[in-house]
């Protein structure tokens, strides 16, 4: 997989922001239902494109490596920066 292929997959599924696995699957199911060949607006080509995009992005997400560094944590969970003050 190269970045262009990755970006095309992101565009095919209409992803605009950060997404978790659950949201990725939800987005995929919505689009696959819409473009299923048996649906009114269905298209074999678009359905195939969505399936390929989902499989590529699912593989990427499943194989993502985490660094467990403070910077990555704060980027992923910015609301946790003041967690020590929650009980006050």
Would you summarize the structure shown here?
This protein has a domain at 1-12 and 21-64. 58% of the residues lie in helices and 0% in strands. It contains four helices and no strands.
Oligomeric grouping of the chains: single chain
User: How would you describe the shape?
Assistant: elongated
In sequence order, what are the helices and strands, one letter per element?
Answer: HHHH
Percent range of helical residues: 55-70%
What is the averaged pLDDT score? 85
The chain-level structural class is mainly alpha
Between the first and last Cα atoms, what is the distance in angstroms?
A: 48 Å
Please tally the β strands and state the result.
0
User: What's the helix count?
Assistant: 4
Instruction: Report Rg.
Output: 17 Å
- Give start-end ranges of low-pLDDT stretches: none
Main sheet characteristics: none
Strand content: under 5%
Tell me what the structure shows.
This protein has 88 residues and is an all-alpha fold. 58% of the residues lie in helices and 0% in strands. The protein has a domain at 1-12 and 21-64. The chain is built from 4 helices and no strands. The protein is elongated and about 50 Å long.
What is the secondary structure topology, with strand pairs?
Layout: H1 3-12, H2 21-35, H3 44-62, H4 70-76
Helix pairs in contact: 1-3, 2-3
